[in-house]
Structure prediction request, 599 residues.
Amino acid sequence: MQTSVLRFIRRGQPVSLGNVPPDRTLLEVLREDLGATGTKEGCGEGDCGACTVVLGELTQASPGQVAGDSITYRAINSCIRLAHSVDGMALWTVEDLAGADGTLHPAQEAMVRCHGSQCGFCTPGFVMSLFGMYQKYIAPTLVTPWTSLPPEGAFAPRGGPAALTASAALITRELAQEELSGNLCRCTGYRPIFDAAQQMAELPAVKVDEAVLVRMLGQLKTVGKESRTAPSVGQAPAYLLPSSLHELLAARAANPKAQIVAGCTDVGLWVTKMHMQFDCVLDLTQVVELQRIERHDSHIAIGAAVTLTAAFAALVEERPQLKTFAQRFAGLPVRNSGTLGGNVANGSPIGDSMPLLIALGACVILMSVGGHRELALDHFYTGYRKTVLAPDEVLAWIKVPRPLPGEFLRAYKISKRFDDDISAVCLVLNMTLDAGRVAKIGIGAGGVAATPVRAIETESFLTGREWTEQAALDAAQVLRAEFQPISDMRASAAYRSEVLANLVRRFWLESQGMTNINLELAVVPESAVIPKNAVIPKQAGGLNNAVIPNEAVIPNEAVIPNQAVPNQAVIPASEPGSMSPEPRTAGHSRDDAGPGSQS
Prediction:
């Protein structure tokens, strides 16, 4: 098996590694090959964020523009990211942030000053997510970069608090919560970490010299390009990383059994949890044509290599009401790695993007060396994790219709946690009224069948009907009867059916202007946060004054009756045609795919 040389920039210097297997993760390379043990392995699933690192990649330009004059920074999970996928990029780990003299980066210094660490295991991941925020929101405000990269790795302190007076409010409490949603802390608590996020801008500034880094990345892109795109099965390397659509289609035709990846956020789990191995991997994330979002009069076209972060940003720009739904899709490191194309191509019944796209009437474009074809997304799936993709085809584009005047859209995600969790039920309804009657409606559902599905019967029931409370109640019962969900570790079948009906009721209430039933609209003002130096007096109910009455204690002889948890309670197995239970491999929706399919 031939393996390509893996090349990336770290600490201002090119790194070249040979003999890296195609299914080796970036975390394994960092810890075992490079000795970068500051990056931790926690869940091995992309859930906890302990393994977070930051990637720097040449910014892709829109069609007709020149690319490569700036860097895009993304915090990602290294535990489920295949190592070869970062070829040609810049990489930062927690070891790379401090200066040669030991001066801490603002992301590190702020954590120290705000007491944002206790056991310290999750801290490297938080620091790297903070560094990603620093590069995204604070670094662009720094005017004067150094003229060259310092020897230790692309950082140089400059300025001071006065240099960033206007930048102190760049990161709000709300933004910090959003950006750190993919990092879990089990002992420190989040308040001091959010404090650190907000205080980074007040510390002496540090800036990456992007001019030098852009030049180095440009040179790296040209090294070994031919070995990454060879289409011949006999001569091809184990990890194919084409940079153009033509190269991708040729490689797919020559390697129909290769495992396609489009972000690695699920295939990485197959490696870490299922211990799967691949003889050949075909990675489409660096195909230039598929990294674009194109806007047309009737639709926007999202390339299969567009990250979930960028894809959701484009969808939210068109439909602002989707902002919360987009933020609840996994955590930011997963959205920064995973792609919309990968999430769609996997066919997972619990992938959150598909119910949304089905409700919006999206189509997919499938391509091969022989041509292309277009079909509605709800016709793309044939069974549990099965699609109509031919062995030589790839999913190349997703076409999403633009909003219609008067469109009323709601996307509901029901899960045990608000952030970073898999849906028990996902329901999206998109309705247009004409003189009080339903002129058009699209309903997509997830978690209730073997695939993401369109609620065809409920759509047919509502179309042309006057939109009244009774119509909504009747439609709720039609929707309940349309699907036969199963019970699994996330929810029971009865709960899922009940939720489907309740969400239609909620949709009716919101269509009438009711907002107080939507907890997503509730905002805790920043002024409500208790200052870190505040002292809570004992008489106000502090813990020192708290008394637990004796009668609140459960007596030793207390017995919980057996009937409280019936012995005969059994989670039914899946039946043919029903939704197969997904393994609890992670706490988020990801770009899942079956072997040989696109992920």
User: Anything to note?
Assistant: The longest strand covers residues 425-434. Confidence is low (pLDDT under 50) at residues 145-168, 536-597. The first helix runs from residue 26 to 33. The CA atoms of residues 363 and 377 lie 5 Å apart.
